[in-house]
Amino acid sequence: MDIILKKKFIYLKDYKAKCAIGKRGITNKKFEGDKCTPRGRFKLKYIFYRKERIKKISTKLKLIPIKENFGWCDDVKSNLYNKFIKFPFKYRAEKLYLKDSIYDIIIVIDYNLKPIKKNRGSAIFLHIAKKNYSPTSGCVAISKVDLIKLLKILDKNTFLNIL
User: Fold this and answer.
1) 11-33 b/e with 16+ CB inside 10 Å = b?
2) What's the pTM?
3) Chain segment 43-66, per-residue pLDDT in tens
4) Domain residue limits, the chain
5) What is the largest distance, in Å, between two alpha-carbon atoms of the chain?
6) Which residues pair with 105 in a beta bridge?
7) Superfamily in which the 2-162 domain is placed by CATH
């Protein structure tokens, strides 16, 4: 099953939802820090979530509660580039445990994971959008309501097809 992302909307069967993408649009040639969303067809891997904020999630994907020391390495100098890490960490990494709600639910998109290519982009997620759907640094973001609806029908054979 494919979720289609086209022109700042996602589509799944008869369902349509507004989304935010990278500030500089969609690209075929993603690089670290370019603020672009990568074009392609990517499997949805697993879900990180804030269990103290999201009480019940119905999904077939693996769920991992986010702890305060969780992060994702975005430093090309690290051997753990584009991988889940725990703080303290000597290289640059994005925190997954945030004060705001955009990372209350994070679906890891299988972009640049196997094999990982240095400087080709990291931490590409599907997560909760800000209220005004402001652009991301490369992730895809939808409303919390839409994300919770999607979770119910996702499985290990679901792909995000970014056109």
Assistant:
1) ebeeeebebbbbeeebbeebebe
2) 0.97
3) 999 999 999 999 999 999 999 999
4) 2-162
5) 46
6) 49
7) L,D-transpeptidase catalytic domain-like (2.40.440.10)
